[in-house]
Amino acid sequence: QYDPNKHHRRSIRLKEYDYSQAGYYFVTICCQNHECFFAPVGAPLVVAHPQPNILSNSNDPNPTPKSQIALNDAGKMIETEWEALPGRFPNIELHEFIVMPNHFHAILEIRPENTESTDNPLNSESQRTHTLGEIIATFKSVTTVKYMEGVKASGWKRFEGKLWQRNYYEHIIRTSTAFDNIANYIINNPAQW
């Protein structure tokens, strides 16, 4: 039974920060119990070709290819659903991201709200600025449902309780140097696995 004196659910978010405001956010989401659902341990690396970094000081139109984990079908589903998020939240833009066997890293940008399109009450909900928490909750919910479908239809590895841990880690990116450092961390994550 829940006892508020024993079971403290402390938020790891900044208390006074508005997580719907425009900015860049580094997000890490881990699988429950750190189980490897998206690729087996020891999965080989494959080469992918990233997009040029918009905040980087480099003007190189052909960035260095990066390594990524050879994902199973569940991991590919995670990639697909992340890439589909701007269709659900028009005010976001996705930057570097990587699906690892048991976690996920990404840089997400929340853009300023488009005030011209919110004049129409029919568009107000789809155009309102959502919080980072709402965006991540949607991603976790959609991927959990799709994963459960994969368990039933394709025999994906079952999970107990939840696919994802209850919380997620976020960091507000405030400078282009920080953006570059985090993007490089994401790019190099598979080589460190």
Order of helices and strands: EEEHEEHHEH
What's the pLDDT, averaged over the residues?
Answer: 82
N-to-C terminal Cα separation, in Å?
38 Å
Backbone structural class: alpha+beta
Q: Sheet bearing the most strands, described? A: 4 strands, antiparallel
Number of strands: 6
DSSP strand (E) fraction? Answer: 15-25%
Strand order of the largest sheet: 4-5-1-6
Helix share of residues?
25-40%
The radius of gyration over CA amounts to: 18 Å
In the predicted model, the low-confidence regions spanning at least 5 consecutive residues are 7-11
Number of distinct helices: 4
Shape: globular
Describe this structure in words.
By secondary structure, the protein is α+β, with helices and mostly antiparallel strands. It is built from 4 helices and 6 strands, in the order E-E-E-H-E-E-H-H-E-H. The chain is globular, with a radius of gyration of 18 Å. The termini are far apart.
Offer a concise description of the structure.
This protein has 193 residues and is α+β, with helices and mostly antiparallel strands. It is 31% helix and 19% strand.
